[in-house]
Design goal:
4 helices, 101 residues, alpha+beta, globular
């Protein structure tokens, strides 16, 4: 099964919905269907989800995995080869957003 690169090599959980916060009323009620991104924890202190530090040894390892996911999409003709550098830049920016370095 081919997935978008950011889903195949995740830094967090993607959802197809957003839920309301308690302070705005209807806690947990559906707000919209634009989706959310919930970053994985950086370390494994009391988290159910596997942390980023156990998923990828470094930003370079993450970027390599991301590029391999892009390569599979190019080989299957779901992505243009010239879009791979854009995904590298996107992946690097997403890493900096989630990890902070």
């Amino acid at each position: 099964m081919l997935l978008p690169p950011e889903v195949a090599v995740p830094l967090g959980t993607f959802t197809g919905w957003n839920l309301r916060r308690k302070d705005v009323g209807a806690d947990g009620g559906l707000t919209n269907l634009q989706g959310s991104f919930l970053p994985f924890p950086l370390d494994d202190r009391k988290h159910a989800r596997l942390p980023i530090s156990k998923r990828y040894a470094s930003v370079n390892a993450y970027r390599q995995n991301l590029d391999e996911a892009c390569e599979r999409l190019v080989n299957e003709r779901y992505m243009l080869a010239e879009d791979r550098p854009r995904y590298d830049a996107y992946g690097t920016a997403l890493w900096k957003f989630v990890v902070g370095k």
